[in-house]
Specification:
Order of helices and strands: EHEHEHEHEHH
Number of domains: 2
Distance between the termini: 59 Å
CATH architecture of the largest domain: 3-Layer(aba) Sandwich
Radius of gyration: 20 Å
Strand content: 5-15%
CATH topology of the largest domain: Rossmann fold
Number of helices: 6
Strand order of the largest sheet: 3-4-5
């Protein structure tokens, strides 16, 4: 399995070293996030990070676990389902929070947006139905987020294409004058 790692703090603050990215390819898929929704992170050029990677890889279902159920998990699930149209499986024995509201939020998420499964249930289901596992449609490298896909409009991509056309026009005009 080659997951896209998302964690809330800078490298070195990972609490579970075994889950931290190890190779350069794994690190390229890492997102250091300080936002509640993991879809809210943008690169230095103002482009989304997570959604373009998931889209390039052909992801249609997100299996989600993590911490702060009533904050980060909730906002990420709502964005995944409402904004991007993903199916979400929320791991019932892989989510936690430090508030008294976590269990209530899990109930809300299961009722409105997510499939309620344990980690073992997901494993058993995928073993029973291997046809549900698809190969990634692009290399599992974080740089795939910079590629253009038919589903996503990247304003910088469109601007670059327009500038390329303008350069060709100007070069043709210059060549005609010579």
């Amino acid at each position: 399995m080659n997951p896209c790692y998302i964690y809330g703090g800078p490298r070195g603050y990972d609490t579970v070293a075994e889950l931290a990215p190890q190779t350069d390819e794994e690190i390229s898929r890492s997102i250091v996030s300080l936002h509640l929704s993991k879809f809210a992170d943008y690169d230095e050029q103002g482009r989304e990070i997570l959604f373009p990677m998931l889209e390039a890889w052909g992801v249609n279902t997100i299996v989600l676990c993590g911490a702060w159920t009533d904050d980060c998990l909730a906002t990420t699930v709502f964005d995944a389902v409402d904004k991007y149209g993903y199916d979400v499986i929320l791991i019932n024995n892989g989510c936690a929070t430090a508030t008294i509201h976590g269990a209530k939020m899990m109930e809300v998420l299961y009722a409105a947006t997510s499939c309620n499964m344990s980690a073992q249930e997901v494993i058993d289901h995928l073993k029973k139905h291997p046809e549900l596992i698809e190969a990634p449609k692009a290399p599992l490298n974080g740089n795939v987020r910079l590629t253009h896909t038919k589903y996503r409009h990247d304003p910088l991509f469109a601007e670059n294409e327009a500038l390329k056309k303008k350069i060709i026009e100007l070069e043709a005009q210059l060549a005609a004058k010579q």
